[in-house]
Amino acid sequence: MGGYFGGLLARGGADVTLIARGAHLAAMRERGLTVRSELYGEFTVPVRATDDPIEVGAVDLVLFCVKGYDLEAGARLSAPLVGPETTVIPVQNGIDIVERLEGILGEGQVLGGMTYVGGKIEAPGVVAQGGPMGELIFGELAGGTSERAERIADFLRGSGIGVELLSDIRSRLWEKFTVICATGGVLAVARLPFGAVFASPEASELMRGVMGEVENLARASNAGLAEGTAERLFDFLKANMDPEGRSSQLQDLEAGRRLELEFLNGTAVRLGRELGVPTPLNFAIYAALKPHVDGPVD
To answer: What CATH class does 170-292 carry?
Structure first.
């Protein structure tokens, strides 16, 4: 995601620096960054890239795009980028990302953020974006709007990034959390794509039930989700998802990579205990996938 959004910013003329490492960093320094996008086509741009944020110093905006399990380490690494006037927009899966980041980077400097962009590193220096959605979605977590959020939205749009600025980002974050706990969890447990899961009445009922538990968590958290949100989202997924599509957590499991499980069903279970909301289906998924959370089981 960092390469996708950073590449669009660089193409739009923004002063942008990418924080990267290893072969990906070396390739971008030597050949620039190539973005292959279903929305914007393929393009290559020269970019400034480093693995040391101290070289960059404080900036106006940080797009925080690491995986959930790298959140704390990434935040500590990013600290030199964050000054008194810096705004941070995260796009990780999860419902408590802002609070986690503010604990490291400072209270009040992080907006609620998310995206439905699907992407991957195809090769060092090459990132791919797939699917019809390419927007960065964000807003003030407390609700309403602000001058800084409007200013950032105008800047991003002017640099070629699709933006959805919301006055109720918290409820949208809960909607995505409802979806990702179900799709990430059920598809990974079943080791099957969407079509096979929806073809099974039992697997479909499991997905619907996981979503219902997360909706109950949202209501207990006063997130403003309307009753029936889980059913509406389930119907949308069943009608619109690519039958061969795989959730990112299923892809990570199949590839032997670490899982974001703690930030998904693990967080749902923890919040359920804190709020007194039963989450037996999320717990079952969490328990089944926990042995794989750090990669392949010996």
So the answer is: mainly alpha
